[in-house]
Amino acid sequence: MAERVAAHNLAEYLHWNGKSSRALSLARRALALQRFLPAPVPSDALLLARIHAARGERAQAHTVLASARALWQSASPSRSEEIAMRMLDLFLSDELGASELEAWNQLVAAAGAELPGEELLELYYFRACAAASARQWQDAAQVVTDARTLLVEYPVWQEPFAELAQRVQANRAC
């Protein structure tokens, strides 16, 4: 149990730091160690799905997300897990139309008072990445700007947001 929790926490920290390649093996280890738990929990599968999504591995993220959903049949998800699941559903959607933009905005607004800062920044990050993937550069830039205040308080996300801001700025200039 202690190794599983340590692997999960370190994987999440590395993921937040933009080091998803290093986080991947630890998240897999945490998920594998669940075989020693009396009852599996969805948090490890959900973390692994988030890491795959951040790496652009959509098929793997979908597969792991499905296993996280299956685990919810026996365990009640936390509000944080529910928000992360909705975030991944939106991020992995194949389109970003007006209804998806509104769904993102509603999720960010609802999560603002419920999530710890690091998790809220992850939501902002995936939201901005979804906009960038849809070539909605103005929208992506606004999300990055909205995240700046939180980044001062929670610097763990500085590197991923700096890289995203450069990408957004380069494409807005074109």
Characterization of the model:
- This protein has 174 residues and is mainly alpha-helical.
- It has 9 helices and no strands.
- The mean pLDDT is 92.
- α5 packs antiparallel against α6 and α6 (98-111) runs antiparallel to α7.
Q: Helix tally?
A: 9
> What is the percentage of strand-forming residues?
under 5%
Given as residue ranges, the uncertain stretches (5+ residues, pLDDT < 50) are none
Shape verdict = globular
Outline of this structure?
By secondary structure, the protein is an all-alpha fold. The protein has helices spanning 2-16, 20-32, 43-54, 58-71, 79-91, 98-111, 117-133, 137-153, 158-172.
Could you give the topology of this structure?
Layout: H1 2-16, H2 20-32, H3 43-54, H4 58-71, H5 79-91, H6 98-111, H7 117-133, H8 137-153, H9 158-172
What brief labels describe this structure?
single chain; 174 residues; mainly alpha
